[in-house]
Request: fold
Amino acid sequence: MGVKLLLEKAHVEGIRSYEVYRREGGYRSVEKALKTMSTDAIVDEVKKSGLRGRGGAGFPAGMKWSFIAKPEGVPRHLVCNADESEPGTFKDRYLMEFIPHLLIEGLIVSSYALGSHDTYIYIRGEYAWIVDILENAINEAKANGWLGKNILGTGFDCEIHVQRGAGAYICGEETALIESLEGKRGNPRLKPPFPAIKGLWERPTVVNNVETLASVVPIINLGGEEYAKIGVGKSTGTKLISACGNINKPGVYEIDMTISVEEFIYSDEYCGGIANGKRLKACIPGGSSVPILPANLLLKTAKGETRYMNYESLSDGGFATGSMMGSGGFIVLDEDQCVVKNTYTLARFYRHESCGQCSPCREGTGWMEKLLLRLENGQGKISDIDLLWDIQRKIEGNTICPLGDAAAWPVAAAIRHFRDEFEWHVTHAEEAQKRNYGLAHYAEPIHVPVTV
Amino acid sequence: MAFIELPIIYKSLKCVAFSLRTLREKIKKVSEQQLFKVTIDNITIEVPAGTTILNAARQIGGEVAPPAMCYYSKLQGSGGKCRTCLVEVSRGSEKDPRPMPKLVASCRTTVMDGMEVKNITSPKVIDARAGIVEFLLLNHPLDCPICDQAGECHLQDLSYEHGKEGTRYEFQKRVFKKHDLGPYIQLHMTRCILCYRCVFTADQLTDKREHGVLDRGDHSEIATFIEKNLDHDFIGNVIDVCPVGALTDKTFRFKNRVWFTKPVDAHRDCPTCSGQVQLWMRGDEVFRVTARKDEWGEVKDTTDGKPGWICNTCRFEKKHINDWVIEGPSKVNRHSVIAQGHYIGLQKPEEIMPKVMHGRAPKLLMDIHSVSEVNRTNIELSLIDGPATSKTFNHSEKTNA
Ligand SMILES: Cc1cc2nc3c(=O)[nH]c(=O)nc-3n(C[C@H](O)[C@H](O)[C@H](O)COP(=O)(O)O)c2cc1C
Ligand code: SF4
Ligand code: SF4
Ligand code: FES
Reply:
């Protein structure tokens, strides 16, 4: 059993209620932080912990906090990003649903550290029932003196507000989220200025993911250095992984980032192997935006080393032979899955979710979707594959926000690693309508050149 | 005499002193304002801190200025969307010479001291820009032959200058349902490139914006949600800012091709706006009234230095030559087809006949028509059926009969 810091108590009977949560040691970190630590000391602990943003980009949280501008007389805000709409990612939902007070506790400490008197949780609109759970937890915390005016007699005031989104993936992008929170259309803003300088209502703002902010609780309780001892290298602490697809035990797992990908998929503690005795074909290890990897590159790096479930190892080899930790949405594809169809499904998602501000993303995503559908339906041409490559290349890096990149990467990776499956859809168009390409050679060991 | 001259000398001395003082103040102001050195396509200039790369490049002018489809210097917050102005920053600044990892939108990126920018000297930029043009044209209807904007359309210019000759798109193009914006403004959503300029215009010139962008992605559209007339004194300006034919003037619709009309500067005493406009005329007929535009296609400043937005009355209601005081032909700087009708500085060739003849009338030596087989005046070209061919002339008697 690996270390559990976030979900350890998630299954204690009644943990959703304040009494049980408090009895199990909840809100200790608020007492410690507000009564014994300066705001700078808290930021320092978070820096020492090495905690990286859990929302997808993996940016060091302590560093982000230290960037926040502190102009005289201007309020600052902390915003919790609970928009979780990336296909394959459902970890924040689990955390908020089962142990909501953990998030509230993390928010109070973080708000104190950043000097935010009005903190917002921007939650995905479809998570309607969780809004009630959170608001209930907030009310309980307030009734017990953890929120409101003069918390614990320290003079610190803080309110937490929950705001529901209206069903747009793009509102998870931090600047689009801020626009939406201001009551505007959820279009990402151009950066700079960054939210740390001009965010919500032009005030300095920090946007962090649910899991990032919940992790502040164990960091304060254990101390940054102790927290950093869990995990490996720059992947410190524990990470929630939402595993789905063709596995025996889909669900949310807390891992300590020292286990191998192979162990994560096959051990009974985690995914429990591929469902129905099938073989592993491919995997998208970090949510729909990150590159898909064939089985052989997933379990071993191009150098033939074991691949681990952490930030560095998953991205080993760059985009040529690696992928990313992303948001921890682990999607497993078995030998019966069609990569072309899978890529089409993702392209359709991005086409539908693009905000439409910038031309490459607005027009390019629709074009890619149409080409992929044609290939999937057996009406494609070989040149379509090169065209797809060229389109994704012209979207990537040329857009306002990373959604453009997120739409380009899955297409690029699918063509990079599964080109023959795409070509087969053209050369064997009729057959491709009746059966899948199958596992082919995607699980065979890759020849690794021996270096002397 | 001296008693007259003295005060004049005194006056002019004062004048010199005064202008020296203002000059000194001006110099002081400029030196107080930090100047940044920036090199764009190997041309170095100095611009005040806070200038964007695009505006610095516009100061150099010509091809060095990146094309801009969404940025509009008179509209706050505009730019950054179309991505046609992407440039490569090959050197960040004097302090941090690292190149920027991605191409940047020059319209929204400010210069740093010692920055080096590549626009047309960067193959990456040219490649990316060709891609952007392809994206912008992907779903564009290309109905230029029936579009009122043709001839002054920024998308036409952009495609000619930065695009490829063909498209690789083989699917049905997107079309939108017609949406009525009232008696003055015609919306052709299918032509829209979603530059958001009209949205900013309505936000910044009218007190309550009634139209905006609905929906998202490739299905987003400019509309009023519930069909509604746009009526505000200054809303007509959305027509001028629209880079394509998505918003056009209903009072001018299908009346004339812009290149057949002559732009002249004119003004009237208008209680609402500056009344400084451009009339698009044919003969004595006023076909269209617009704001005056500069070489970047943006509304020019009026004589008092404010952006020359005009009101709906001037734009839509004053279509008679007597409504206006004509100032003279407009200078057309844009390299569009309108400039082809260039007639400023037209020099009529000197009539030399009277000079060489010393005032005598020329004497008719020979009537060419009576000798030549080519120019036969007995063939009435306007009466023949279809175009003239050699047959027409060979059998002139028959065709003429
Ligand atoms: C299109 C798009 C969607 C995103 N959606 C989410 C999301 O649902 N939840 C989230 O936490 N971060 C999301 N992000 C990342 C946020 O922009 C931001 O990086 C993150 O909230 C920062 O928090 P962190 O540093 O704690 O990871 C998204 C980014 C993009 C570009
Ligand atoms: S990349 Fe896509 S989602 Fe992001 S701002 Fe541009 S159009 Fe909108
Ligand atoms: S209607 Fe014209 S001005 Fe408005 S967004 Fe579309 S192209 Fe831009
Ligand atoms: S002009 Fe700069 S992005 Fe449109």
About this structure: Residues 256-401 of chain B form one domain. Chain B has a mean pLDDT of 86.
